[in-house]
Write a structure and sequence with these properties.
The chain is α+β, with helices and mostly antiparallel strands. The protein has a single domain (3-154), classed as Sufe protein. Chain: A. Helix content is 41%, strand content 18%. The chain contains four helices and four strands; from the N terminus they run H-E-E-E-H-H-H-E. It has a four-stranded mixed β-sheet with strand order 3-2-1-4, covered by helices on one side. The protein starts with a helix and ends in a 5-residue tail after the last strand. Bound molecules: zinc ion.
């Protein structure tokens, strides 16, 4: 497969997740929640997370919000990849995704679907669209349960 075809395929996957998201909505119950905002594009997102009984593993992730195809597809792909992961694994995936956006890494075989976002690294203005959901996830997982989560996290100052 040529590089151009591969790029088209990735775009198709992104558009498919944008048009037919599988993880939109709110988890029941909500154990963690966080809103995020990407001022440079206007994307907003609200993540909700359901944990297992011990609070160590992610049982479900859902998102609401509005924004461009890259931001919404990234959230849907992220949610899919996170289900069943431990919080530690999820936080490592946040770092890994940020590295991928710098062109320094890609995901291993069992998480390879996330690699469809790799092409975004070639478009610096869109990187924050792709990382918004991961940035928001990190804030959600690191928040103290029951604390005030009304504020937005913004990735405006992220390098
Ligand atoms: Zn965007």
């Amino acid at each position: 497969m040529s590089l151009d075809n591969l790029r088209d395929l990735y775009q198709q996957v992104i558009l498919e997740h944008y048009k037919k998201p599988r993880h939109r909505g709110r988890t029941n119950p909500v154990h963690r929640q966080q809103r995020g905002h990407n001022p440079s594009c206007g994307d907003t997102i609200e993540l909700t997370v359901k944990l297992n009984e011990t609070g160590e593993r992610i049982e479900d992730v859902k998102f609401e919000g509005s924004g461009c195809a890259i931001a919404m597809a990234s959230a849907d792909l992220m949610a899919e990849a996170l289900i069943g992961r431990s919080i530690d694994e999820a936080l490592k995936m946040v770092q890994h995704f940020q590295k991928m956006m710098k062109g320094e890494a890609e995901f291993p075989k069992e998480q390879r679907k996330l690699n469809v976002m790799r092409g975004v690294s070639q478009f610096p203005v869109r990187i924050k669209c792709a990382t918004l959901t991961w940035h928001t996830l990190k804030a959600a997982l690191e928040s103290v349960p029951g604390s005030n989560t009304d504020g937005f996290v913004s990735n405006e100052n992220e390098s």
